[in-house]
Amino acid sequence: SQQGEEDPQALSIQEGENATMNCSYKTSINNLQWYRQNSGRGLVHLILIRSNEREKHSGRLRVTLDTSKKSSSLLITASRAADTASYFCATGVYSNYQLIWGAGTKLIIKP
Amino acid sequence: NAGVMQNPRHLVRRRGQEARLRCSPMKGHSHVYWYRQLPEEGLKFMVYLQKENIIDESGMPKERFSAEFPKEGPSILRIQQVVRGDSAAYFCASSTGATRQETQYFGPGTRLLVL
């Protein structure tokens, strides 16, 4: 099974509401990253949080990391239609250079 | 500063033909990663290359698939004797390689359709 697993698989909310997506992983990590993918496009890096960090902010994004629970959450505040996309978490493990990817959360923002 | 470039954006091949996918990393980046994405799924790591070296090909199928990143020119992902199951989006990403698992910058992808 995947190292990173996003939850929920799909999320549909009204514009202006907050969206929360979760990511769980299995092994110890060096860092965890969140990416966004608009339909039919490549991925765009959103934020990286290291294993010794607990929270990080970037604009309307807030990421938390709980290494004891092996989980992370991505919060998008005051959502906009342009936030409609798939969101992926990727974990970097100590033993190699790879990022291990989850299957993503599909977020739909209804106007 | 141009981002990661991939070409072609769309590629149609018949079963048994060869597919060549190209990736030019961002300027200053010497590390390239190839991923495959099936519809409605996440990315699957295929191979990680530095200039003239394959660092990790653990995600690459043992047969028909090969990758290179020559000293000059783009990285090439080559699929020989394509089958319908090879139909997918193939993404390339690049990084500076200064640290492990650093931010990767993605290209727009090549969508391969095997008829």
Contiguous runs where pLDDT drops below 50 for at least 5 residues of chain A = none
Q: State the distance separating the first and last CA atoms of chain B.
A: 37 Å
Nearest-angstrom radius of gyration of chain B?
13 Å
Structure classification of chain B:
mainly beta
What is the share of helical residues of chain B? under 10%
CA-based shape of chain A: globular
Sequence of secondary-structure elements of chain A: EEEEEEEEEEE
* Helix percent band of chain A: under 10%
Q: Looking at the chains present, what oligomeric state does this protein adopt?
A: heterodimer
Main sheet: strands, sense, barrel of chain A: 6 strands, mixed
The number of distinct helices of chain B, counting runs of at least 4 residues, comes to 0
Strand content of chain A: over 45%
| Series of H and E elements of chain B | EEEEEEEEEEE
Number of strands of chain B: 11
Q: Largest interface, per-chain counts?
A: A-B, 24 and 25 residues
Principal-axes shape call of chain B:
globular
Residue fraction in strands of chain B: over 45%
Description of the structure:
The complex is a heterodimer of chains A (111) and B (115). Chain A contains no helices and eleven strands. By secondary structure, chain A is mainly β. In chain A, the strands form two sheets. In chain A, strands 2, 4, 5, 9, 10 and 11 form a six-stranded mixed beta sheet that branches. Chain A has a five-stranded antiparallel beta sheet with strand order 1-3-8-7-6, with no helix packed on it. In chain A, strand 7 (61-66) and strand 8 (71-76) form a beta hairpin. By secondary structure, chain B is mostly beta strands. In chain B, 0% of the residues lie in helices and 49% in strands. Chain B is built from no helices and eleven strands. Classes of the chains: A mainly beta (111), B mainly beta (115). The A-B interface holds A 2, 30-31, 33, 35, 41-45, 48, 88, 90, 92-93, 96-104 and B 4, 31, 33, 35, 41-45, 48, 55-56, 58, 91, 93, 100-109.
